[in-house]
Amino acid sequence: MVHPNGPFLRSVGMMIGAIVGVGVFGLPYAFAQGGLGLGLFELFFLGGMIVVLQLMLGEIVVQTPGHHRLVNYVGMYTGTFWKWVALLALCLGIWGAMLAYLVAGGTFLNLLLSPLLGGEPAMYSYVLGVVASILIFGGLTLASRIEYLVVCALLFVFTFIILASVPSIDVTHLSTLNLEKFFLPYGVILFSLSGMGIVPELKDILGKSHQRQMALVIISAMTVIIVLYALFAFAVVGVTGAETSFMAFDGLVPVLGSTFRVVATFLGSLTILSIYMVLGIELLNTFKFDFDLRHRTAWFIVCVVPIILFAVGMREFIDILGFVGSVFGGILGILVALSYWAMRRRGICRTHHCINFPAPLTWLMIVIFGVGMIWEVVTILVS
């Protein structure tokens, strides 16, 4: 039996902090549309798929000498072309996530400040974008100092919402079912569970003596995340039912009162600002180190794209989550599965023990991700 230790606990905490984000606020709406039971089924099913993918990536990281990023691992096992596809999907996915955070941040700040200052959510989104851009310019030093505070604040927000919602739950809200909305939670769930890029970082945190705990770290962290998501969706849908809003929060305010509004939106706004900054810095460093761009140039490109996308009208929160999760998350999922399969075929696992995922499971996941991507694109084109 493996006993918890410092590197193990730090790794679990870091993984939770890297994955839990604004995507969870879209889950209650997506679940309420199709039915809570259907949404929870998809959460556990897709969550299991993501855990398998992360375990595959964990095996690649442990078995491959040296220290690399997700994109480099894909390139090493599938070739240069797919490395560039992975890099493009990662960059576009981060921009999409920053756009979602921009929309969510404007909603949170509007709920918090509009009673005093007035204004529309869009104005607060621009304010958040400008403030975050200034912080992104400061780089990783500032982000690393607040990482644990952000994780604690985010977990507190979810716990606070769940506990505050329990007394107001109406059980009749929990039994609806609408199969026509079956696909709606798919992309939102994938977005909310995205964060495979953190897996290579765990190798450094665990160190050589604890690398074999990689699988246990992944399973432990993902179990906490999935259970947290399920409880959050259960609490919000139980309170607001079919009236659940896109962002979950604004629909709860009339029921839970002004104290809830102030506490939840204040902590939520700070958390969104912080994670937006961390995403921007991650992409900033990608441009600097993978494309050899100067700091100012990389910073400008990173920060201006989500603001421009927001300015031209891309502000539908659920649509953004669904597209980014289904398409860019799907691409990365397929490439990780192919990389794992390529590693197995090279014979590395004949000399080192690997977790043995059967080929049919690997190809089944590839098919599911591929169908999800096609469905999302077709849905957009016909709507």
Can you walk me through this structure?
The protein has about 375 residues and is mostly helical. The chain has a domain at about 5-95 and about 145-155 and about 170-255 and about 305-380. It has 15 helices and no strands. Helix 1 (about 5-20) crosses helix 10, helix 3 (about 35-65) runs parallel beside helix 13 (about 315-345) and helix 5 crosses helix 6. The longest helix has about 40 residues, at about 250-290. The chain is globular and about 60 Å long. The termini are far apart.
Topology, element by element:
Elements: H1 6-19, H2 27-34, H3 36-63, H4 70-78, H5 80-117, H6 121-137, H7 140-165, H8 184-192, H9 199-206, H10 214-240, H11 249-290, H12 295-311, H13 317-345, H14 348-351, H15 359-382
Helix pairs in contact: 1-7, 1-9, 1-10, 2-3, 2-8, 2-10, 3-8, 3-10, 3-13, 4-5, 4-13, 5-6, 5-11, 5-12, 5-13, 6-11, 6-12, 7-10, 7-11, 8-13, 11-12, 13-15
| Biggest sheet character | none
Which bin fits the share of residues in helices? over 70%
Strand content bin: under 5%
Low-confidence stretches: none
Concise description?
The chain is 78% helix and 0% strand. Helix 1 packs across helix 7 (140-165), helix 2 crosses helix 10 (214-240) and helix 3 runs parallel beside helix 13 (317-345).
Describe the structure using short key phrases.
single chain, 78% helix
